[in-house]
Amino acid sequence: QKEVEQDPGPLSVPEGAIVSLNCTYSNSAFQYFMWYRQYSRKGPELLMYTYSSGNKEDGRFTAQVDKSSKYISLFIRDSQPSDSATYLCAFRTGANNLFFGTGTRLTVIP
Amino acid sequence: DAGITQSPRHKVTETGTPVTLRCHQTENHRYMYWYRQDPGHGLRLIHYSYGVKDTDKGEVSDGYSVSRSKTEDFLLTLESATSSQTSVYFCAISDASGYEQYFGPGTRLTVT
After folding, report:
1. What is the C-alpha to C-alpha distance for residues B3 and B33, in angstroms, rounded to an integer?
2. Residue B2: per-residue pLDDT
3. pLDDT at B97
4. Whether the Cβ atoms of residue A70 and residue A12 lie closer than 8 Å to each other
5. Residue B40 confidence (pLDDT)
6. Contact status of A44 with chain B (Cβ, < 8 Å)
7. pLDDT tens digits, chain B, 112 residues: what are they?
8. Percent of chain A having pLDDT more than 90?
9. Among partner residues A42, A43, A102, which is closest to B41 by beta-carbon distance?
10. Is the peptide bond preceding residue A10 cis, with omega within 30 degrees of 0?
11. Which of A18, A106, B22, B110 has the greatest number of beta carbons closer than 10 A?
């Protein structure tokens, strides 16, 4: 079993839709939970970062963590064509190195 | 890309050739990392550095070596490139907390 599982998609939604992206993990030592966005042929950029169970909001983005189920989600409200990218979940133990999901490719259709 | 540059951006090389990739940062961050990104595997850590001359192995370090002689530069060397090392290589940096890692633009390496 991989430490991190992420549905690769692709996921296609109409503009304005709510998008739900998910990852599951098996390593109980993961303490920090992140979402990165990666545009084609670019480096990943950090979107959201949290270390506790519950929800964290930032504009149209909400990160949700359920440690008991080892499940994290990223919700995008009022999705825009500019949100079209690959979204990567990432996890960290107490050390600095990150463990990434394989990414979900999202396309928002105008 | 948070003051991070990578060079070269693209490289094609032959099997058995040594290759060095360079990462340069202007943020004065303590930690630097090298990842590779492959379809179906996501990003995987190769090596990281927690200070000048201080480095450690990551998940996929076989066939790679690194050096850091200055805070701003982190070099990744493939001593004898193989086709399995064809990949996109990303450098990342973070401060001592490690809470946020910032990635460079990537180097696309093809080994023929």
Report:
1. 14
2. 63
3. 77
4. no
5. 85
6. yes
7. 569 999 999 999 999 999 999 999 999 999 999 999 998 888 999 999 999 999 999 999 999 999 999 999 999 999 999 999 999 999 999 987 777 899 999 999 999 9
8. 80
9. A102
10. yes
11. A106
CB distance A98–B102 less than 8 Å?
A: no
Of B26, B1, B19, nearest in space to B104 by CA: B1
In contact, A29 and A93? CB cutoff 8 Å: yes
* Strand, helix or coil for residue A90: strand
Contact status of A97 with chain B (Cβ, < 8 Å)? yes
**Is the separation of the CB atoms in B110 and B86 below 8 Å?**
yes
Return the SS3 of A81: helix
Name which of B44, B99, B106 is nearest A49 (Cβ-Cβ).
B99
Chain A environment of B90 (Cβ under 8 Å):
43-44
Give the separation between CA B64 and CA B2, rounded to whole angstroms.
25
